[in-house]
Each structure stands twice: as structure tokens, then as C-alpha cells.
Design a protein that fits this description.
One of its GO terms (molecular function) is telomerase RNA binding. Its EC number is 2.7.7.49. Belongs to the reverse transcriptase family. Telomerase subfamily. This is Telomerase reverse transcriptase. By secondary structure, the protein is α+β, with helices and mostly antiparallel strands. Among the domains are: about 210 residues, Topoisomerase I, Chain A, domain 4; about 180 residues, Orthogonal Bundle (Tetracycline Repressor, domain 2). It starts with about 30 loop residues before the first helix and ends in a 14-residue tail after the last helix.
């Protein structure tokens, strides 16, 4: 239980049941030393027991509360400890920072810490100090994690290491064959009171004999330590507040180190994990597809710095290769000093095999193998200069991608030439590995292979080079050999195969095939990229920086974000993606605190713009930010229209803007943002905090957030802040940890930052630097919000009364107008087709549609697509009935695509649990309120919408089953898969009830508007339709599913059953027939 809060309450409430699991963990002993032993001796000494009652109740208090807290903060800063109490404080650095903090000699405050300030002035904490004394309270603040409960269901942390750091690294794999889980996980946490009682029992037992104190945790330093590993922040910027994900120290350090441990100019470092005994391989990394994505360059060759190319084919080179592969040594570099160490006998015997491997690599004709297995199509004669920009040439090049089979045959040929047969051990092992290679390149964008999958069905006994002597060996030795072989396979897949793909192919996803990967030979991608750069330079007016300008910027150390440009193939061309996440020198981002600070300021600007958008919704005009906004606006509009008698005829207009991001005028955008921020007028207060919560499945999730306010609505202290979060947001059952707090974020400085990002945005293309003179980059965290603000200003000026009796919606750059006035619809269409140059807005007629006749002469150009007056009108993945205004989902985007390529199935060691989590998360996303709202849609439409959701879920179920590792068939555990299908129906029905609160949906006897039996029937029908096509795989499930559906048919009324059968009519699901899986 946490200490008393900032208010003078001598007694705090008991721990809330929902938050208690997060507060269970007891910290390891840290920094106790002689003071704790002295406290124990006082409790055990006869003199202490003979003391008076007053002495026992009131231990000696030497310092006041402010002095004690200051002394604790100074001690924490000197140790470099990560403690919530010391956030915002740092040691004085010479003359920097001004005078020291009161009651300290060498500590300064560079950011406010409201938790510490509350503690220093709290009467309740002062009472606690008088009761327990200096030593005990100092020990609690230094070595323990304490929390203050905030009703109704949350808490905030007062001191101790931040809660999100107290976890087991999820990225570290367990040794192969080791059962169970590592100690200290969240599952091992005990209730707080139980931990306190058990600690008291240990202290009582300590009278007869006390155990030695636990080892201290390694300290962290605030000075650079080049010989130690540093958790460096990822170069990827977050889109606003980070999404909740699993807690790992690497991720935590990546997102919070710059704001918790010290001010600008300091760096937190952590000691490397100690390696195991000599000769035991370290844990292999997971081969991931992201390691070979987007590797551009015109030359098809291996890098000279690649390990196999840099090492000579000798015993010395073989030794260095063995050390790198098995012992985790740093990759060998020519000319660098390397300390030689004694090689264990196990690896000493491997040198001849790896010498042969190096020789095979030196003789391997990689380019000839590439031309043989991935040939290029016959080239046409050299084109004229004006034909180089022909769109038909661009389309021809886009079609010249190599198939996964061709890439696999190339990799197979290289591996067969590289790896000696003795290293495989047998043809069986070689075939198993090649099968995994084929699987690896067929995975999606975010997939990876685990060492367990690589070792599946590999025969360790076939590898003679693993055996020191013939005969049987203990189980421990066999597991050790498994680990050695696993390390070799992970290196072959994660280093050698990945290097081949990086060196000879440009691998990317596309806009039309979800996460499926396409492989372009670099000799094909290089002219493609040249055409894309030429088109992009024309559309956004890039100005090349001279060498002198680049040199002057480097000398001035201007903190300008330098973005990289890449292209995404689409059916008719290339889509430019200017990614501000990739910064020049991003790999060493942690070393340059100025760039890191600038990245944080961009996120602050994003938070401030969002704050102003929430305060003044009119700024965005008709913009909607997601399906929830669309549902609210459409729901109100439908009820308003249906209240009219007779119902008017409605005219629909859909307009897509051509190159919205690239065409925005920068001067107009600067004017719009100036009206939002109002420079020289506003000052913002920014609080950075972390939220740690425990999910229903028992997983701990954390997310980093920013809260912006002004002095008018500022919650000054953490208790008021957490109370407001619980009132205004969905924060429940969580622990809040304050990271930093700023009271002087001036709008003028934020506006200057915005101007520098817009007018001085540097793009790196092919080794050259350019300034973008028009538009904004698509890859920025600010792009969508800036585009919405600009178009919102355009709507207020050009269409002030267009929403009268109608509805105007805009999802970024996709407009939808629904109005009963034909002239208003025609005027709106005419304005956007002719264009609005001052806002860079011009309609793309190929994606523009109406449901009324339009003449070419009326627009001055080709007429857009004209649909019937009564139709299903498509807009942003929705199908809108122009007469009834009912809404359904548009599944045409799934045509000719693979479901397996559209989802990433994290298999891991428990694929069944991963399947459930993945399917249910996707189900929740698809069950939008717009499709299940019975006030907007009729019951028959909701039947059809739910059936299509279940059918798509059945396709995803099949895709996940196909990706199950270790050849696990469905027949081994049919009960599990039947339970997944049953839970799918129950969860979808629960979401239906949540979307229609206040309505009575079902009653006893399968009666009512929408009984639960109807949802179960639709689910069974959808899964039977899909799984029956693969009867060989699901034969063990089909009988049980048919029996369950037959039982439901006998329960449901005839009218309901007829409506369900009509909703499941095959003619309504024609889009699903073209899905490739």
C-alpha cells in the first residue's frame, strides 16, 4: 500500500483491487548497506526492547521533510539512479545551472517535478517522517517503489524506479529446451499485503540467523561509457502518443531515457548482460524480414565489408568467423585491433569446416547465379529522351519483379555452393533449412522466424562436427549441441541470407497487396527510382542544395530533420513516401542530443495542434479522424433525414484530391497554422507521463503520452491530474508515472519550429540534398493534421452553408457531400473539379463519383463516374445506400489479394494463444458501430454485415492455421479450434450489444430483435462455408460445427431463420470468391 497522499490524511484507503496487481512487485535490495543493518540491530537489541513506549513509537527525527527529500534526491543523482523522485534533477556541471537546490550542495533542477514538490510540502508525509524517523523514510524513498491511490481505480508513482522498467526483457529468448519461464515475471507477483507479511516473517526469523542481503542492481552512469552497451532510442518517431505495447527495458529506454535520467547533454547507459560460461553460445537473434527491406543502390554485389568477404579463407579467418557466429564477438573488421582469446576445444575443431566455407564463398559466382535464376526480360532498344518519362515504361519496369520462387532458387544455389556438406550433416538437415528459407522469403512485412522453428526436425546427431567423441552423451550436452546448431542456422538465415537479399534485391511492399513483399533486382529498381525522383521533383518543386549550403549547415550544426525518400509501387506508378523518421545519422541518434531534442519538439508541436483542435473543433471543418467520428456524424444525419415526411431525394458527391500533400501551398499553410497557434499570445503547459496497466489476459502494457494544457485549465499536481484523466478519458485500473513537466512552452517557439520544418525541410535522394519548395512530406507525424487544418480553412471560406439540410464529410483528402439540393451538389462538384489554386486543391476525376447526371460542358472537362440514383455509393471503404442511408463494408479491396499477406501472425512458442489474440483484435476492429448500429441499419442489413465479418474472420482463421509452426495439424487439438470459433460468435455479439446500448436485443427462446442464437448461426454458417473448402484440413471440425448449427436451426423461429439464410446468400459475398487464400 502506498504512503499517504499530498493532502493531510493520516490514513489512506486500502489498495484498489484492479490496481493492486500492478503494485505487487517487491524491488530487489538496493543500496541498503550499513543503515539497514543498523535498523535491524536496533530492533533486535535488548536496549531497544527495554525502551519506553514513546521511544518505540517515535524514532529519532533529525531533519525536516524538505531537507530529507533534498538529501535523498542528491544521493540518487550522485548514484545516477533512475528514480521517479529524481526526475528533473541533475548534478551541477561547473558553472552551468546556477545555484544548487536548497539543502543540497551539487544538485540543480532543470524541469519541475510535481511529485517531489507535493512530497516536500505534504503534512501527511511530515507525519510519517515523525513516526518512522529519517533513516526509515530515506530508505523507503531511495530503495522502494511507493504509490498514491487515486479513486476510483488508479494510482500514481511517488518514488522508486519507474514501474515500466520493472519487467523481464521479452526480447531475450529462453535457451532451447528449457521449460517454464524465467523468475521474476509479472505472473510471479504476489499481493502487496502478502509480500509485506512475508517480509515481516523473514525479519522475525532473522533474529536467529539472517541471510546475506541480495546483490545490488548495476548502477547506471550519466557519462558516456564506450565499452558498455547502450540502449539507444529507435529512430522511428511516434505518431503522437505511443500505442500500448509490451514492456521491455530496451523500448522503455528508447522512449524515455532523454526525459527521465538527465537534462540535455547527458546519456544513460546500462551495463551489458554478462555472458555465460566460456563455450556456451549466446542466445541467437530472430531472423526478421524487416532487416532486408528498402535497401537501395544500383550495384548488384556483396559489400566488401561483409564478414565473409572481409575474412581470408585461412584458419585464422575461420577462427574469427567461428568467434563471430558462436561466441557473439563483434564482427571482424580489417585494420581494427582485436583481442585474441582462447578458443574452446568444441569450436577449435570447427576451423577446417569454416575455412572451407570461406573458400567456397570466395569462389562462388554470385552474379552468374543471379542472372540464371532471376533473369531480366528482353530489353527494348534504347528509348528516346522524351520516352524516358513515358508512364508505359514505368509500368513495364514495375512488372519486372522476381517471383518468390525465383528468389528462392537463387538463394538455394548460393547456399548449396557455400555450405560444405559436412556442415549440414545430412541431406535431411539441408532440405529442412532450405524449406525454412522458402518460408522466410514468403512471409509478410513484419514477420520473423524463431530459433525453435529453424531447429524443428533438425537432426543434431547427423552433425559429426558437433561431437567431440562417439557414443551417448548426457541430456545437458545434447541441449548444448542443439544451441550451437541453432546459432549456426540463425546466422545463416539472419546474416547470410539477409545479406544476399540486401545486396541483390530491393524488397518492398506495395499499395495493392497489403504486406506481401515484392523483390526487384537492383538493376530494375534503379531506373524505377530515377523515374520516380524525376516525377517527384516536378510535383513538389525540389531545389537542390549546393555543396556550399550543405557545408555551411553542417558547420552551423543546424538541427534540421533530414528525411529520406522512398517509393511504394502502386498499380499505375510509384507513391513517394518522404519519411521524417529516418534522420541523417539516425543510427547514432542518441549521440546527438540536439537532433533528439528536435524530434521531441516535433511531437510537442503535434500535441499542441491536437489540443487546439480539441478546443476549437471548427478548425478542422468537415474533417473526420476515423470510423467513430464518421459514425457520430452519419447517425445524427440519418435520424434527422428520417424525421422528415416525405423523405427527400439525396444527391451524393465523392471527390478525391490529386496529390493533396504535395500540392499544399506552404505560404497558405503557414497562415493557417499561425491562426491556430497565435504566436506571442499563448503559452502551453506540457506534461509527459507513462501509463502502465494490466490487461484482462494478465499482460502488462505501457504507453507514453503527452498532455497539453494552458494555465486556465492546468491540473497542477498529480492527484488532480489523474482524477481529471479518469473523468475525461477511458483511463481505468492503471498506474501513472510522471516523466517531465514544463510550464513555458511558448507558441512562438513552436511556430518557428513549424516554419523551419516546412520551409527548410531537407530530403536526401541518391546522395544529394534538396529543399522542398511546395507541399509537405507524407511521412511526417504532422502531415495528416496539417492537411486537415488547411482544407478545414478552405471549407469555411468557400462552402460556409453547404451543410444546411445536408452533410459534408472529409477523411483527410476524400470529400463526401450528401445534400437534398441538386444545385448545391453541382456547385460543390464544379468548384473542386475546376480547382482551388490558393489551397492546392484539385479533383482527381478518376476517383470522383456522383449519383446524378452531369454534362461534360458543365464542368469544362470530362465528366466523373455517374452512378444510378439508387445504388450502394462507395466512399472510404464504406457502401452507403443512397435511398435508405444504411451502411455496409466494402470488401472489394480484398479482391485478388492474400489474407496471409494482410496480417502478421506472431507465432512464438505459444501459437495458439497468439492466434486467439490476433483474431479477436481484428474482430474488434471490424465490428465498427457504423455497421452494427440498429438505429442506422435495419436488422437484415446488420445480419448481412455481421455475416460478412464472420466470413472474413473465417478466412483469417484459415490463414493463421496455415502459418502454424512445427507442423501442428488441427486434428491434434480440435477442441481448441472449436472454442476459438465459439468465442468469436460470443465476442461479436457482445460488441453488438455494446454498440446498441439501451436496446433489448434478445429474449428467451431465441426470440427478440437480434438473439444471440442468430449471431451463433451466422458464425457457424460462415466458418462452414470456408472450412468445407479445405475438408482435408478441417474434417475433425466440420461434424461438430454442422451438429451445432442444426441444433440452432431447431431453436430459431422460422422468420428469423429465413432472414439469416437470406443474409448468407452467396450472391452477397461475391467479393470473397476472388480472395487468393
Amino acid at each position: 500500500m502506498g504512503p499517504p497522499s499530498g493532502t493531510p490524511e493520516p490514513r489512506s484507503p486500502p489498495p484498489l483491487p484492479a490496481v493492486r496487481p500492478l503494485l505487487q512487485r517487491r524491488l530487489p535490495a538496493r543500496g541498503r548497506g550499513a543503515r539497514v543493518e543498523r535498523l535491524r540491530s536496533r530492533r533486535q537489541s535488548p536496549q531497544g526492547s527495554r525502551g519506553t513506549c514513546a521511544t518505540r513509537r517515535h524514532p529519532p527525527q533529525v531533519s525536516c521533510l524538505k531537507e530529507l527529500v533534498a538529501r535523498v534526491v542528491q544521493r540518487l543523482c550522485e548514484r545516477g539512479a533512475r528514480n521517479v523522485l529524481a526526475f528533473g534533477f541533475a548534478l551541477l556541471d561547473g558553472a552551468r545551472g546556477g545555484p544548487p537546490l536548497a539543502f543540497t550542495s551539487s544538485v540543480r533542477s532543470y524541469l519541475p517535478n510535481t511529485v517531489t514538490e507535493t512530497l516536500r510540502g505534504s503534512g501527511a508525509w511530515g507525519l510519517l517522517l515523525r513516526r518512522v524517523g529519517d533513516d526509515v523514510l530515506a530508505h523507503l524513498l531511495t530503495c522502494c517503489a511507493l504509490y498514491v491511490l487515486v479513486a476510483p481505480s488508479c494510482a500514481y508513482q511517488v518514488c522508486g524506479p519507474p514501474l515500466y522498467d520493472l519487467c523481464v526483457p521479452a526480447a531475450v529468448a529462453r535457451p532451447l529446451g528449457s521449460p517454464g519461464h524465467s523468475p521474476g515475471t509479472w505472473k510471479d507477483l504476489r499481493p502487496t499485503r502478502q509480500a509485506w507479511k512475508s517480509g515481516a516473517r523473514r525479519r522475525r526469523r532473522g533474529k536467529s540467523g539472517s541471510s546475506p542481503p541480495l546483490a545490488k542492481r548495476p548502477r547506471r552512469s550519466v557519462t558516456p561509457e564506450p565499452e558498455q552497451g547502450t540502449h539507444r532510442p529507435s529512430a522511428q518517431a511516434h505518431r503522437g502518443d505511443s500505442k500500448p505495447h509490451a514492456v521491455t527495458p530496451a523500448r522503455v529506454a528508447a522512449e524515455s531515457a532523454s526525459w527521465e535520467g538527465g537534462p540535455l547533454g547527458t546519456r544513460l547507459t546500462t551495463a551489458q548482460p554478462s555472458q555465460g560460461p566460456q563455450g556456451v553460445p549466446h542466445q541467437p537473434a530472430h531472423p526478421e524480414t524487416k532487416h532486408f527491406l528498402y535497401c537501395s543502390g544500383g550495384r548488384e554485389r556483396l559489400r566488401p565489408s561483409f564478414l565473409l568477404s572481409a575474412l581470408p579463407p585461412s584458419l585464422t579467418g575461420a577462427r574469427k568467423l567461428v568467434e563471430t557466429v558462436f561466441l557473439g564477438s563483434a564482427p571482424w573488421r580489417a585494420g581494427a585491433s582485436h583481442r585474441t582469446r582462447r578458443l574452446p576445444a568444441r569450436y577449435w575443431r570447427m576451423r577446417p569446416l569454416f575455412q572451407e566455407l570461406l573458400g567456397n564463398h570466395a569462389r562462388c559466382p554470385y552474379r552468374a547465379l543471379l542472372r540464371t535464376h532471376c533473369p531480366l526480360r528482353a530489353q527494348r532498344p534504347v528509348a528516346a529522351p522524351e520516352e524516358n518519362t513515358d508512364p508505359r515504361r514505368l509500368v513495364r519496369l514495375l512488372r519486372q519483379h522476381s517471383s518468390p520462387w525465383q528468389v528462392y532458387t537463387f538463394l538455394r544455389a548460393c547456399l548449396c555452393r557455400l555450405v560444405p556438406p559436412a556442415l549440414w550433416g545430412s541431406r535431411h538437415n539441408q532440405r529442412r533449412f532450405l524449406r525454412n528459407v522458402k518460408k522466410f522469403i514468403s512471409l509478410g512485412k513484419h514477420a520473423k522466424l524463431s530459433p525453435q522453428e529453424l531447429m524443428w526436425k533438425m537432426k543434431v546427431q547427423d552433425c559429426a562436427w558437433l561431437r567431440g567423441s562417439p557414443g551417448d552423451v548426457p541430456a545437458a550436452e545434447h541441449r548444448r549441441r542443439e544451441g550451437v546448431l541453432a546459432r549456426l542456422l540463425c546466422w545463416l538465415m539472419g546474416t547470410y541470407v539477409v545479406e544476399l537479399l540486401r545486396s541483390f534485391f530491393y524488397v518492398t511492399e506495395t499499395t495493392f497487396q497489403k504486406n506481401r513483399l515484392f523483390f526487384y533486382r537492383k538493376s530494375v529498381w534503379s531506373p524505377l527510382q530515377t523515374l520516380g525522383v524525376r516525377q517527384h521533383r516536378t510535383s513538389v518543386r525540389l531545389r537542390e542544395l549546393s555543396a556550399a549550403e550543405v557545408r555551411s549547415q553542417r558547420e552551423a550544426r543546424a538541427t534540421l530533420l533530414t528525411s529520406r525518400l522512398r517509393f511504394l509501387p502502386k498499380p499505375g506508378g510509384l507513391r513517394p513516401i518522404v519519411n521524417m523518421d529516418y534522420v541523417a545519422g539516425a543510427r547514432a541518434l542518441c549521440r546527438d542530443k540536439k537532433i533528439q531534442h528536435l524530434t521531441s519538439q516535433v511531437k510537442t508541436l503535434f500535441s499542441v495542434l491536437n489540443y487546439e483542435r480539441a478546443r476549437h473543433p471548427r478548425l478542422l471543418g468537415a474533417s473526420v479522424l476515423g470510423m467513430d467520428d464518421i459514425h457520430r456524424a452519419w447517425h445524427d444525419f440519418v435520424l434527422r433525414v428520417r424525421a422528415q415526411d416525405p423523405a427527400p431525394r439525396l444527391y451524393f458527391v465523392k471527390v478525391d484530391v490529386t496529390g493533396a500533400y504535395d500540392a499544399l501551398p506552404q505560404d497558405r499553410l503557414a497562415e493557417v497554422v499561425a491562426n491556430v497557434l497565435r504566436p506571442h499570445e499563448n503559452t502551453y503547459c506540457l506534461r509527459r507521463y507513462a501509463v502502465v496497466r494490466r490487461t484482462a489476459q494478465g499482460h502488462v502494457r505501457r504507453s507514453f503520452k503527452r498532455h497539453v494544457s494552458t494555465f486556465a485549465d492546468l491540473p497542477p499536481y498529480m492527484r488532480q491530474f489523474v482524477e481529471r484523466l479518469q473523468e475525461t478519458t477511458s483511463l481505468r485500473d492503471s498506474v501513472v508515472v510522471e516523466q517531465s513537466y514544463s510550464l513555458n512552452e511558448a507558441s512562438s517557439s513552436l511556430f518557428q519550429l513549424f516554419l523551419s520544418l516546412v520551409y527548410n525541410h531537407v530530403i536526401r535522394i541518391g546522395g544529394k540534398s534538396y529543399i522542398q519548395c511546395q507541399g509537405i512530406p507524407q511521412g511526417s507525424v504532422l502531415s495528416t493534421l496539417l492537411c486537415s487544418l488547411c482544407y478545414g480553412d478552405m471549407e469555411r471560406r468557400l462552402f460556409p452553408g453547404i451543410q444546411q439540410d445536408g452533410l459534408l464529410l472529409r477523411l483527410v483528402d476524400d470529400f463526401l457531400l450528401v445534400t437534398p439540393h441538386l444545385k448545391r451538389a453541382q456547385a460543390f462538384l464544379r468548384t473542386l473539379v475546376r480547382g482551388v489554386p490558393e489551397y492546392g486543391c484539385s479533383a482527381n476525376l478518376q476517383k470522383t463519383a456522383v449519383n446524378f447526371p452531369v454534362e461534360d460542358m458543365a464542368l469544362g472537362s470530362t465528366a466523373p463516374l455517374q452512378l444510378p440514383a439508387h445504388c450502394l455509393f462507395p466512399w472510404c471503404g464504406l457502401l452507403l445506400d443512397t435511398q435508405t442511408l444504411e451502411v455496409s463494408c466494402d470488401y472489394s479491396s480484398y479482391a485478388r489479394t492474400s489474407i496471409r499477406s494482410s496480417l502478421t501472425f506472431s507465432q512464438g512458442t505459444r501459437p495458439g494463444r497468439s492466434l486467439r489474440h490476433k483474431l479477436f483484435a481484428l474482430l474488434r476492429l471490424k465490428c465498427c458501430a457504423l455497421f452494427l448500429d440498429l438505429q442506422v441499419n435495419s436488422v437484415r442489413t446488420v445480419y448481412a454485415n455481421m455475416y460478412k465479418i464472420f466470413l472474413l474472420q473465417a478466412y483469417r482463421f484459415h490463414a493463421c492455421v496455415l502459418q502454424f509452426p512445427f507442423d501442428q495439424p488441427v486434428r491434434k487439438n480440435p477442441a481448441f479450434f472449436l472454442r476459438v470459433i465459439s468465442d468469436t460468435a460470443s465476442r461479436c455479439y457482445a460488441l453488438l450489444k455494446a454498440r446498441n446500448t439501451g436496446m433489448s436485443l434478445g429474449a428467451k427462446g431465441a426470440s427478440g430483435l437480434f438473439p444471440s442464437e442468430a449471431a451463433r448461426w451466422l458464425c457457424l454458417q460462415a466458418f462452414l462455408l470456408k472450412l468445407a473448402r479445405h475438408s482435408g484440413t478441417y474434417r475433425c471440425l466440420l461434424g461438430a460445427l454442422r451438429a451445432a448449427q442444426g441444433h440452432l436451426c431447431r431453436q430459431l423461429p422460422r422468420a428469423t431463420l429465413a432472414a439469416l439464410e437470406a443474409a448468407a446468400d452467396p450472391s452477397l459475398t461475391a467479393d470473397f470468391k476472388t480472395i487468393l487464400d
